[in-house]
Each structure stands twice: as structure tokens, then as C-alpha cells.
Design a protein that fits this description.
Elements (H helix, E strand, L loop, with lengths): L6 H14 L4 H16 L3 E7 L4 E8 L10 E3 L3 H9 L3 E3 L21 E9 L2 E10 L7 H18 L20 E4 L1 E4 L2 E8 L14 H25 L6 H14 L2 H12 L4 H17 L4 H22 L14 E5 L4 H6 L5 E6 L7 H9 L2 E4 L4 H4 L5 E5 L4 E4 L3 H24 L13 E6 L7 H5 L4 E5 L1 H6 L6 H15 L4 E4 L26 H7 L1 H15 L4 E5 L5 H20 L8 E7 L8 H7 L2 E4 L1 H9 L17 H17 L3 E3 L7 H9 L4 E4 L1 H13 L2 H12 L8 H11 L5
Parallel strand pairs: 9-10, 10-11, 11-12, 15-16, 15-22, 16-17, 17-18, 18-19, 19-20, 20-21
Antiparallel strand pairs: 1-2, 1-6, 2-3, 4-5, 5-6, 7-14, 8-12, 9-13, 13-14
Helix pairs in contact: 1-2, 1-4, 5-6, 5-7, 5-9, 6-9, 7-8, 8-9, 13-24, 16-18, 17-18, 18-19, 19-20, 20-22, 23-26, 25-26
Bound molecules: phosphoenolpyruvate (PEP) and magnesium ion.
Length: 755
């Protein structure tokens, strides 16, 4: 039997043997607490497990009354054990009974013990249980003893997550690790998905905890740390001054952590205690997470991501794990959980198996959200800390409309969502039946319904929804998901395929709208304080007409004589639009000269999304063949609220009077000039908002494909005339402070509209 003098390493080695031996789970636990008690020369060693009902159950003990095992429980926060679990911090006391939190349990017979040392058993920073040693004497446990106990706790955490453990859990209870959790997050793409978690960035599983040779582990750790420091320094130095300030900031904080002496020292100490290098990284990261998760400062919590990243880099280097999810292994009904995802990463997953995505970050108008919507993948963002709380394979329910996620749902939650899914399927059947009906209100107003799109992959949906065409094809999506600038031939191929798939249905191709939140990684631009108002979109295109010319050339070639509609984004004044038209006309002439086929009809439109152009509509409409309102940007700039900033993006009602008046001006101008007008921002896809737009005279609405069914259903039931009359009264100024949304909700109820 080992003694205290043998030190923690011998304890670890004995523990490893115990782990490997063929024993029942209870026997194994009993053996572990015996070993710890002997090794530390302590009278008592007890192991408590946190259950899903927030009770800490005594699972094994050496020294306390054995009858108390599985009988004694403490609440989270109750007694010293409860305190350790709640705070996820170790606690060492010379005289435990005199601590104010001490709670006496007669059944355990622990009244006579004075010295106390307890450590949390952690996984991803979450408490799974508590490990305690106690002694009769009034003494302080030594620093190395605390280290050894924490190391043992790392091992127990791993053991807790194995199936073997299940047999020890009382029927009706479960360990907290597998507790159902729900997240009030933000809906990015509506729909309901019931499936299984796939971690985008899979956790590296540490299998080898106990070092055979401490010196060798020390070397492995040092080498891995050094390599990591060098690679981060390289990243930092190779980034020319063009790297955006945000990117630099992130690298800067990475670098700070990578060289942080305290962190490196803690890693080394963990190795000295007998852990392998990878187990040391896991243990230190667990403790850091636990501490940082309990901080309310958002800056500190953000930095946690940096530390997680660094720890993962080290773990990958040490275990040789690739870290990339193998897409081919995707199970059916996969729900990808990630901190954040780029549009290209999303598209790498097999769509036939991908049911949903859940992110810790992102924004509704971020491109991953836009792509998810256009592909009909349920998506939710801002699910805080979900990555650390789930494991690949966990059951999960995602409600994209409500922005809720249920991880390991209880049977009743799951059943209610199965029912919702059934009702939804029925609604979809109903929408499918409406597919071939024209969208006409009961009083005969014809509304054009169109798709917002940007990928060829989402064009086949036209056949399913019965939409009349594509009102907005965001061409930049192809650029955003590519790893390098798509060449002319690639652009031609894409546009041609899009036109082929759409067939008779027209597509409005919007010229590249790069910049702002639409980051094209290989087109580096200087860092900007306010990228949304920076060098972007049409401005960029006119300054660097090479890109613009290539794109126009590609569109003209792809059309092969078919009619073509081109939409110019972010038009701020008429002159700017005319300059762009000039570039397009020169390309048409060039095509003609070279004997190419020019489109039989070429229509050039302007987007109304920068408020300035509202004051020059008459001039613009002299030149534009059609116009299209981009509500996402128009409302962002009218209300000075960043569309990508979840905190403010929804601060103002987009259909409040000032916004409706602005839009109504556009309607009137288009009518005066007899030019077609479409709404192509996200606004048109929401029923009450669409109703508002129709009430002020808009008759062409472009939206995500999944919105077509519900909006058409609403239109078919609507008598527009009286709604229009009452809304226009308010817009014209005689509404006496009526809230338009309330008014419309009232009308929807009165007319029994499905909104
Ligand atoms: C808009 O701004 O409303 C719009 C349709 O364009 P995007 O969302 O691509 O900026
Ligand atoms: Mg826009």
C-alpha cells in the first residue's frame, strides 16, 4: 500500500491499476477512495456526485458510515461540500466544524473530523461532483496533497462520463452532467429540428491520464507549448498591416495568453503531479473555465474563448487529433453545434442529413443565418455556453421560430415538439396545395411573391413554393464561400446554372455587395472603424471597376441572349447609379463588338437602402428600370442601429410610422414613374410586416423561401382595402398616435388572418 511519502505519482499509478481492473463500479469507487485516504494518511475520503435535481449524493466513502452511501445528500450550496460544488473552488480548512457553512449529518458520523480538504470534480468547467478528505487532527493539508486530490478529481470526471457509471444511479435520478438544459436564444431560421448534436469542433478526448514517465511528459508539454507560441507569433507577424483591427485584437489576446507565465506554470505543475501532458492541459483548462464562467464581466467571458482555443490547440498537438469533424460521418438529423460558423463551413455539411445549427454567436442578418434560411436549415444563435454543455450524440430539439434550444430534452418537451412538428407538416401540406394559386387578396389585389436567394442550391425551392421568381440573388455569397476570387469562367458557370434552374422564372441578380458584414476573406481591405459605412458595395465597385466589369461580363455571357435583370446595391445618389450603368453599357457594347449574344432585354435596377437616395427618387427613376427596397440596410441607417448587433438590431419597430413614411415615399415615386418596385429585405417575409407593406401599396415582395407559404396563406384570406384605408390614415398623419403594429394585429384578428 502506498503512503503519503510515496507522493501523488504513486497514488496515480495505483489509481490507474484500479481503473483498469475488472471490478464492479461501486467496488471500483470504494477502492479509489480507500487509495486516496491511505495515500494522504487521512481518516476519511468521500466522493459526492451532483445529481440532476441539484442534490449531492454520497457515492463512496472511506471512513464515514458505509450505510450513508447513496443515502446521504446535500443540496447545492449546503454545507462545505455544497459550497465547493456551487463555487467550483477547492477548500482547505484546519478545523472544518468551525466554518460557518459546516453542516452536520448525524448519519455519517463525521463530527469528530477537523482537517478538511475538498475539491470540485469538473468537466468543461461544470461541476460534476466533489471529492473530500478529512482527518481527526487539526492540521492543514499540504499543497501537494491538494494537487494530488485535484488530479484524482480529473480522473473521476472522466469516469463519471462513462456508461459503466449508469448502474450506480438511482432510478428516477440522473447525474447533473446529463441534466436537460434549455437555452433562451435567438431564432435565425425558423422551423423545428429534432435530432442529435454534432460538435463542429469536436472535443479532444483524453484517454491517457497517468504519466509513465514524468520527465518525458514534461518534455512533451514544453515542446507543445513552444510550438504553439511560435505558431501564434508567426500568425501575428505575418499578418501585414492590412489585417483588420478586430483580427489583430484577437491575435493580440491569444499571444498574451500563450505567453502567460501563470498559465504555463499551472500546466507544468499538473504534469509534475503525475498527469500526462494532455491530462494536465485538460485539468488546468477545467479550473480556468470554472473560474471564468463565474465572472460576470463580459470581457473576461469572451477571453475564455481565447483560452479554450489555446487549450484545444495544445490538446490537438499532444494527442494528434485532427479536430475537424468528418462530414462523411454525419448522422441523420444532425444538429451542428458550434461557437460560430462561416457560410462555407455550413455548406460543407451534407444537407440531406443536416437538420439544424446552433451557435453561441452570430446575428440574424449574418450570412450564415441568411444561408441557413435560404436552405431551409433551422438555425438558432446566441445559445450561451452550449458548446461546453453538450456532447456529440446528445438529443436536442431546436425551435428556430422561438429561438429556443432543448438539450437532452425531457420526454414531455420532446413529445410536445413531435406534435408541433406534425402540425407544421400539416401546414406545409396546406402551403403545398396553395402553390399554384396566384397570390391575390379576397378583394382582388394581385401580389407578386419572390424568393431571396444567393446559391444555386436553393433555387430548386422555386418549384416547391410556387414563387414567381427570384427578387434578390445575392451574388456575393459565392464570393464569400470561395477560398479565392472566383474567376470569370466560374462566375459564368454559376449564373448560367442559376438561370437554367430557374427556367422561365426571372432572377434579379444583385451586383456584388461586398464589405460591411459581408466579409470576403481573400479581399483584404484596410481596417475601418465603421465597416457598415465604409468602403463597401457600389463604392468599392466604382473605385475598383475590374471586379465589377468581370461580374457584368459574366452575367451577360451567362444570359446567352436571355432577358437579364441586374440590381445595383447601396445606391447613395443618382450619379453613382449612372456611373455603374455606364460600366454595364460598355460591357454590352464590348460583347456586341465581339459578336456575342446580348440579352434580348436588359433591365437595370437600383436598391433603395441608403436614406440619402430617398431625396432623389425622381431623378433616379429617370434612369432606373426598376427599384428594390433593402429594408435590412434602410432600417439600419434610418434608425442608426447596427443590423449585426443583436443588442440594438431590434430596438426600433421597422413598421413604425417614420419607417413606413419613408417606404411610402418610394411607393409613390415608383407609381409616378410607372416603374416596378419590390421589397427584398427580410421585412417582407414576416406576416404582420408584409401586411404593413401591402397596406401602404407595395405589391411585390421578395423573401426567404420558407416564408412564401405563410405569406401567401395570409394574402388569400385578406381583404386589403379596409386595412389599407386605416393604415394610410395613420401614415398621412391623422392617426392620433396609433401604433401601426397594434392596428395591424387588430385587423389580423378581425379578419381571422393566419399570422
Ligand atoms: C437589405 O439590405 O435589405 C438587402 C436586401 O440586402 P442585404 O441584406 O444583402 O444587405
Ligand atoms: Mg443591403
Amino acid at each position: 500500500m502506498s503512503t503519503m511519502a510515496d507522493g501523488p505519482r504513486v497514488l496515480l499509478r495505483n489509481l490507474r491499476e484500479t481503473m483498469a481492473a475488472t471490478l464492479g463500479s461501486q467496488e471500483r469507487l470504494d477502492k479509489i477512495v480507500d487509495l486516496i485516504a491511505h495515500s494522504m494518511g487521512a481518516e476519511v475520503c468521500s466522493f459526492y456526485v451532483l445529481r440532476d435535481d441539484a442534490a449531492l449524493e454520497l457515492f463512496a466513502t472511506h471512513g464515514l458510515n458505509p450505510d450513508a452511501v447513496h443515502m446521504t445528500t446535500l443540496r447545492l450550496g449546503e454545507g462545505l461540500v455544497g459550497l465547493i460544488a456551487a463555487e467550483a473552488e477547492p477548500l482547505s480548512l484546519e478545523d472544518a466544524p468551525s466554518h460557518p457553512a459546516f453542516a452536520y449529518r448525524a448519519e455519517t458520523g463525521e463530527d469528530s473530523y477537523h482537517a478538511f480538504l475538498g475539491v470540485p470534480v469538473l468537466r468543461s468547467g461544470q461541476t460534476l461532483g466533489v471529492l473530500v478528505v478529512q482527518d481527526l487532527a487539526q492540521r492543514t493539508f499540504r499543497e501537494e496533497e491538494a494537487e494530488a486530490l485535484m488530479t484524482t478529481a480529473t480522473l473521476l470526471a472522466e469516469m463519471l462520463s462513462t456508461a459503466e457509471f449508469e448502474s450506480l444511479i438511482k432510478p428516477g435520478a440522473d447525474i447533473d452532467l446529463r441534466r436537460p438544459r434549455s437555452f433562451e436564444a435567438e431564432g435565425f431560421a425558423e422551423g423545428i429540428a429534432i435530432g442529435h448534436v454534432v460538435l463542429h469542433d469536436p472535443r479532444v478526448v483524453v484517454r491517457n491520464f497517468v504519466a509513465d514517465d514524468v520527465a518525458a511528459e514534461r518534455q512533451r508539454l514544453d515542446r507543445a507549448i513552444q510550438a504553439m507560441q511560435v505558431s501564434i507569433d508567426d500568425m501575428f507577424n505575418s499578418g501585414d498591416m492590412q489585417v483588420s483591427s478586430e483580427h489583430r485584437e484577437i491575435l493580440e489576446s491569444y499571444r498574451m495568453f500563450a505567453h502567460d507565465r501563470g498559465w504555463v506554470r499551472r500546466l507544468r505543475e499538473a504534469v509534475e503531479s503525475g498527469l500526462t501532458a494532455e491530462a494536465a492541459v485538460e485539468r488546468v483548462q477545467n479550473n480556468t473555465r470554472a473560474r471564468m464562467l463565474r465572472q460576470s464581466d463580459p470581457y473576461i467571458r469572451d477571453r475564455l474563448h481565447d483560452l479554450d482555443d489555446l487549450a484545444n490547440r495544445l490538446l490537438r498537438a499532444l494527442t494528434g487529433a485532427s479536430g475537424l469533424f468528418q462530414t462523411r460521418d454525419l448522422p441523420a438529423n444532425a444538429i451542428v453545434v458550434a461557437r460560430n460558423l462561416g457560410p462555407a463551413e455550413l455548406l460543407e455539411y451534407d444537407r440531406s442529413k443536416l437538420a439544424g445549427i446552433v451557435l453561441e454567436e452570430g446575428a440574424t442578418t449574418s450570412h450564415v443565418a441568411i444561408i441557413a434560411r435560404s436552405l431551409g436549415i433551422v438555425a438558432v444563435g446566441h445559445a450561451e455556453q452550449i458548446v461546453s454543455m453538450c456532447e456529440t450524440g446528445d438529443d436536442v430539439v431546436v425551435d428556430g421560430a422561438e429561438g429556443r434550444v432543448f438539450l437532452r430534452p425531457t420526454p414531455d418537451v420532446e413529445a410536445s415538439y413531435v406534435e408541433k412538428l406534425r402540425l407544421r407538416a400539416k401546414r406545409q401540406e396546406k402551403y403545398a396545395r396553395l402553390r399554384d394559386l396566384p397570390a391575390r387578396t379576397r378583394d382582388g389585389v394581385r401580389i407578386s411573391l419572390l424568393h431571396n436567394s444567393g446559391l444555386v442550391a436553393d433555387l430548386p425551392a422555386l418549384g416547391k413554393t410556387g414563387a414567381e421568381g427570384v427578387g434578390l440573388f445575392r451574388t456575393e455569397l459565392q464570393f464569400m464561400i470561395a477560398s479565392k476570387l472566383p474567376r470569370l469562367a466560374e462566375q459564368v458557370a454559376l449564373y448560367r446554372e442559376a438561370m437554367d434552374v430557374a427556367g422561365e422564372r426571372p432572377i434579379v441578380f444583385r451586383l456584388l455587395d461586398i464589405g460591411g458584414d459581408k466579409v470576403v476573406p481573400y479581399l483584404r481591405s484596410a481596417s475601418e472603424e465603421n465597416p457598415a459605412m465604409g468602403w463597401r458595395s457600389l463604392r468599392l465597385a466604382l473605385d475598383r471597376p475590374g471586379l465589377l466589369r468581370t461580374q457584368v461580363r459574366a452575367l451577360l455571357q451567362a444570359a446567352q441572349g436571355r432577358p437579364l435583370k441586374i440590381l445595383v446595391p447601396m445606391v447613395t445618389e443618382t450619379g453613382e447609379f449612372c456611373r455603374c450603368v455606364g460600366v454595364i453599357e460598355r460591357e454590352v457594347e464590348r460583347l456586341q463588338r465581339s459578336g456575342g449574344q446580348v440579352p434580348e432585354k436588359l433591365e437595370l435596377g437600383a436598391m433603395i437602402e441608403v436614406p440619402s437616395i430617398l431625396f432623389e427618387l425622381n431623378e433616379l427613376l429617370e434612369y432606373a428600370d426598376f427599384i428594390s427596397i433593402g429594408s435590412n440596410d434602410l432600417i439600419q441607417f434610418l434608425t442608426a442601429t447596427d443590423r449585426a448587433n443583436a443588442r440594438v438590431a431590434r430596438s426600433y419597430d421597422p413598421i413604425a410610422i417614420p419607417r413606413l413614411r419613408a417606404i411610402r415615399q418610394v411607393v409613390e415615386a415608383a407609381q409616378r414613374h410607372g416603374k416596378p418596385l419590390t421589397m427584398c429585405g427580410e421585412l417582407a417575409g414576416r406576416p404582420i410586416e408584409a401586411l404593413a407593406l401591402m397596406s401602404i401599396g407595395m405589391t411585390s415582395l421578395s423573401m426567404g423561401p420558407s416564408s412564401i407559404g405563410p405569406i401567401k396563406d395570409m394574402i388569400l384570406n385578406l381583404e386589403l382595402e379596409p386595412v389599407m384605408e386605416s393604415v394610410m390614415k395613420v401614415v398621412r398623419g391623422s392617426g392620433n398616435g396609433v401604433n401601426v403594429r397594434d392596428l395591424l394585429v387588430g385587423w389580423a384578428e378581425k379578419q381571422n388572418l393566419p399570422v
